[in-house]
Design goal:
Shape: globular
Number of domains: 1
Structural class: alpha+beta
Number of helices: 2
Number of strands: 6
Strand content: 25-35%
Order of helices and strands: HEHEEEEE
Strand order of the largest sheet: 1-2-3-4-5-6
Amino acid sequence: MEAWLLLALLPAQPLYTTWTPKAMNVQQCDHELQQMWGFEVQCERFRVASILDAGKVRQNLIYFYTGRRHHLIASVDFCRHGDAPAGHWHLNRTPTGECVEHWGPGGDVYHGTCFSCPPWWLVIPGGLDYLQRPLRLYLLPEGDFGQATATS
């Protein structure tokens, strides 16, 4: 698991896809995507599934391909919840490889900031907009990464 995460923190050129799930939780989305993808052979090491909510991207799920299947390793939320602003991210695997909604050291929920993940984790497919745009993206040139209008 640790090796996958270390690779995911490096620059990458993943395949980006979109998905509208039946329910808005990470485990349900992962289950639906795994059923859709099955055991298809892929040449890309990483895949990002942009999860749509009312036509806007609510979160990105970050997957690592092992040669047999895709494994969810992290998710980026494009909405605020609690003290975590839009663009925060979660680990979705425990050190033993179990898939979970949120994981953190000592059993706490960890929220990484939009400034502490690779930029490719924040990318969404062209023509789509974020449910709430991460602060980090306002530092980029106008028009990159979806609409540049402020959200509350």
